[in-house]
Structure formats: C-alpha cells, structure tokens
Recover the amino acids of this structure.
C-alpha cells in the first residue's frame, strides 16, 4: 500500500518512510530538535580544550568527543569546523533504521585558563632539583630536565643560580622521580611541609643531585 506523508504529501514510492512521515520531514524534525549552538571551553594561554573532565590538545578527535557529548543519544560525526561553526552529521536510530541529518552548529568558545597554565603563572612548583658539580654537566642536565618536562606537559617554574650549581624548581614530584630514574641518578631526597590540601599534609620534595 502506498503511503502519503501528511506534511509534504510525498508518497512511499519516492521517499523512505519512518512511521507515517517521509524521511525529508523526519529530517527537518530531527534538525529542529537538535541544538544550534555548542560551547567549547578553551585555555587562552596554551589553547587546550576541556573535554571529559580535563584539558587536552585541540585535535579532531578531542573535538569529536566534545561534540558527541553535546548530542547524547545520537551518533555524531564531525565533518569539519572552524572558528565560528562546525559541520556535523547526526544519526538517529528510529526503530532499527538510521536517519542522518547534516547540520551546521555555532561554536561558542569560552576562554579560560587551564589548570596547568594557572599553576605555571602562579609560580607553582612541587619539587626542587639541586644540581651541583662540574658546570658543564650541570648545564647539560638542566637542558635535559627542561626538555623532559615540556615533552610530558609539565614545566620548569624557575631556575636559581646558587653556590656550586643551580636549583631547578619543577611542577611535578612524580615526573622528577621518573626522570632521575631514567638518568640513573640517585639523589638525596628531603621533604618540606608547605601546606594542607583538604586536611592532608602536602610536602615539597628537594632532590640533591651531585653530578
Ligand atoms: Zn514529508
Ligand atoms: Zn593552558
């Protein structure tokens, strides 16, 4: 039996039907139901975007995850995006049949500062690596530390010249421990209490390294 769409009067010989309506009208309905605008939180200093609870590099994959979260219950493909808008293909499964609409959504970039940048600008550090020994070896080691921390999305907060070497203030105790292990360096470690975080004592570690 040939069906006729009550909205546009197409019949079931010229279009697919979903229930009593044709696919064209169903697509219009779906498109109207979907939001026109989505918000992306972005760090104004490093450009990372906030996705699933953390800041990460703005890649197509990260953007896709974020867009997908805005259209819960649908399958979403990110076809492309720019400063102002994104093109998406949104698919709804209606009783076992897929209906896909292409839609342009406005992107609303919310500028903020990520946790890493906030800590960096505040001069935050978790550990001090005290490098002592021959000046050339100390210089080489400082270079290695900077590169290693940068590669692992952490940072050197500041460097101070002291008698017999340098003190390197870094953002992560954990990464410092990894680095020294890789370098096969056995430091002398001391701990300084510097505050409380939710009732727990927080220590800064000092790693004395002789080169
Ligand atoms: Zn129709
Ligand atoms: Zn940042």
């Amino acid at each position: 039996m040939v069906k006729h769409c009550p909205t546009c009067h197409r019949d079931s010989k010229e279009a697919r039907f979903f229930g009593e309506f044709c696919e064209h009208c169903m697509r219009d309905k779906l498109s109207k139901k979907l939001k026109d605008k989505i918000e992306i939180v972005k760090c104004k200093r490093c450009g990372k975007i906030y996705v699933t609870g953390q800041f990460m590099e703005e890649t197509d994959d990260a953007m896709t995850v974020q867009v997908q979260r805005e259209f819960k219950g649908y399958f979403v493909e990110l076809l492309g995006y720019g400063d102002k808008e994104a093109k998406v293909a949104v698919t709804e499964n209606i009783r076992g049949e897929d209906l896909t609409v292409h839609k342009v959504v406005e992107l609303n970039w919310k500028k903020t500062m990520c946790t890493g940048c906030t800590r960096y600008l505040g001069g935050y550090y978790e550990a001090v690596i005290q490098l002592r020994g021959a000046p050339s070896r100390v210089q080489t080691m400082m270079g290695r530390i900077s590169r290693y921390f940068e590669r692992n999305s952490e940072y050197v907060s500041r460097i101070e010249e002291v008698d017999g070497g340098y003190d390197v203030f870094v953002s992560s105790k954990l990464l410092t421990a990894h680095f020294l292990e890789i370098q096969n360096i056995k430091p002398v470690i001391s701990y300084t209490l510097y505050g409380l975080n939710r009732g727990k004592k927080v220590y800064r570690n000092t790693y004395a390294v002789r080169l």
Q: What stands out?
A: The longest helix spans residues 135-151. Residues 34-115 form one domain. The mean pLDDT is 94.
